[in-house]
Design brief:
Length: about 475
């Protein structure tokens, strides 16, 4: 009798004991896929199944069976580890609770402490929960690795899916265990995340792939019930039919961009503004926009300027600052807006040129608010754009990616002229355009400025912070 057949017989015995203790039986689809995976003897199993398909509960009992009867062997002094990697600690801990319930039903003694469950005896095994980061995936010997909801992993810092890096760090923990295997299980999210890429490879000499909508993997849930739970067809297709959705779209509407380009303002100029996107002069452009607000509440981008390409080789940061400060003085601009890049040096250098520099921190939340403001202004034809192809191309091509957490990530890297526009939108959201950094009016609605009477242009900044002077 082969090792796979022996192990599957023991898994079936475990399943029967759990059913007698009140657990649901492993579904026919799951039993068939487990047999297929162990029969093919691949090192990686990629599973795409709908929500509530029984992924976590089935894989938990598989992990227990492998810990008790798997064909692994670790040398004396080492301990076998079975890590469960999830999107966050709460999700990972839920897997430990399921494992604990299975072990209690089987009458297997264990010790639970923090984020670990340890089995003693002749084959010591440690079940460990790990969040989806590379920090917790080194320094142990794995006999099996279970990665849960891989398509929905998300880095809190960057908003990106860290699965490629996490799996790359986790896989070497199995290097000394020829029988060890890695499971990448998930309901789908996008068509281009790491889990989707691995699934699309299909069955290879290194991996086995399994697919099922919710009602196939878990026949206790009917297809009709899933439609009742989720009437939106696009969401239903992703969550229950296990078909990934398109999560990337254009951030700005192309028709609105076209309609706002070359549009003549209805109001008269009130005052000028100058937002910039700084660079370190090492390749990316140092870009800025010159524009004005009108009495009709419009934001008119009059000039698109920047240092880029070969210009960056023969220019210093101080030269850039002097050029932009000169443009600010010519326009009567007292305060220049930027993000936090190079903000310390820029604040000091612009102060030497009698211009205030107001760095506006960007976050994922603030970028979302800024893009919403841009979309609103474009729909209302209140953002008037020049026929500058560099700016227009970046506006047309910027993408928005919907993240599993519900956040939206905007791909502005390399779009320097657009980024200057996004900085302006940050100021639209957070306060009045044209105010000096120490003004207390930043919490007021930005739209109040759009209804004000015309005022004189700014005089050059005196070098002292003061309340708004226009």
């Amino acid at each position: 009798m082969s090792a796979a057949v022996t192990f599957l017989a023991r898994f079936d015995a475990l399943d029967a004991l759990l059913v007698s203790a009140g657990f649901p039986a492993t579904s026919p689809w799951w039993r068939e896929q487990i047999a297929r995976f162990f029969g093919l003897r691949r090192r990686r199993w990629v599973i795409r199944a709908g929500r509530r398909a029984g992924k976590s509960s089935t894989l938990a009992r598989l992990a227990v069976a492998w810990a008790l009867w798997g064909t692994w062997l670790v040398p004396p002094g080492d301990i076998a580890v079975v890590p469960f990697v999830s999107v966050d600690r709460d999700e990972a801990s839920a897997r430990l609770r399921t494992i604990g319930a299975v072990l209690r039903a089987l009458g297997v003694p264990f010790e639970e402490r923090g984020d670990e469950i340890e089995l003693g005896g002749a084959r010591p095994v440690l079940f460990r929960v790990v969040t989806c980061s590379t920090r917790g995936t080194v320094g142990f010997t794995s006999v099996a690795c279970f990665c849960d909801e891989v398509a929905r992993w998300e880095s809190r810092d960057t908003g990106s899916n860290p699965a490629r890096e996490v799996v790359g760090s986790l896989a070497p923990t199995m290097a000394t265990q020829p029988a060890a295997f890695l499971v990448l299980s998930s309901s789908p999210w996008s068509v281009d995340d790491y889990h989707a890429e691995q699934f699309d490879l299909g069955d290879t000499e290194h991996q086995t792939v399994s697919f099922a909508p919710t009602w196939t993997a878990n026949p206790t849930v009917s297809e009709a019930q899933t439609h009742e739970l989720e009437p939106d067809p696009k969401v239903w297709q992703r969550e229950y039919a296990a078909e990934p959705g398109i999560t990337t779209s254009l951030a700005l509407d192309g028709d609105d961009i076209k309609a706002c380009t070359g549009l003549a303002p209805k109001g008269l100029p009130r005052f000028w503004f100058l937002p910039l996107d700084a660079s370190s002069l090492r390749g990316d452009a140092f870009a800025w926009l010159e524009g004005y607000q009108t009495t009709a509440g419009e934001l008119v981008i009059a000039e698109v300027r920047g240092f880029e390409g070969a210009e960056l080789r023969d220019i210093s940061m101080r030269d850039v600052v002097r050029t932009i400060a000169g443009r600010a003085h010519a326009r009567g601009v007292q305060v220049i807006y930027g993000d936090q890049r190079e903000d310390a040096s820029l604040t000091a250098m612009f102060a030497e040129e009698n211009v205030a520099f107001d760095p506006i921190p960007w976050t994922d939340v603030s970028k979302d608010d800024a893009f919403q403001a841009l979309r609103r202004l474009m729909r209302e034809r209140k953002l008037l754009l020049p026929a500058d192809e560099k700016l227009l191309k970046q506006c047309r091509n910027v993408k928005a990616r919907l993240l599993p957490s519900g956040r939206t990530k905007y791909e502005t890297n390399g779009k320097d002229y657009l980024s200057a526009l996004v900085t302006l939108a940050h100021r639209v959201v957070t306060g009045h355009i044209g105010e000096l950094p120490d003004s207390n009016a930043a919490a007021n609605a930005w739209s109040d400025d759009f209804n004000s009477e015309p005022v004189q242009e700014h005089a050059p900044w005196s070098g002292q912070w003061s309340a708004r002077t226009w």
